[in-house]
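=== Given protein ===
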Amino acid sequence: MAEETATTTRIDMLNDIDLDATLRFGSREMTLEEVLNLGPGSVIELDRHISEPVDLVVGDRIVARGEVVVMSGNFALRVTEVAAPQLRLESIRCFL
């Protein structure tokens, strides 16, 4: 019981850490030539279908998935799946 309380206290200390979160819509490998040829109006096709969920990435880990929505004129994520708490916690290792 005391060990569990100590662990909870240590985790609580991390609650105020700011983390960068990124939405990943998909990916694509490109040659340097293709990147250099990009310009206004260029379209890059990704490897994910529009109906597939978008990944919420913190550090190098996917911590949740969901669908893109618009709120007050901004893009937002409606979360439909969440990774297990341990996996979410592991995502901050690269920041500590």
The first helix runs from residue 2 to 12. Helices lie at 2-12, 32-36, 85-90.
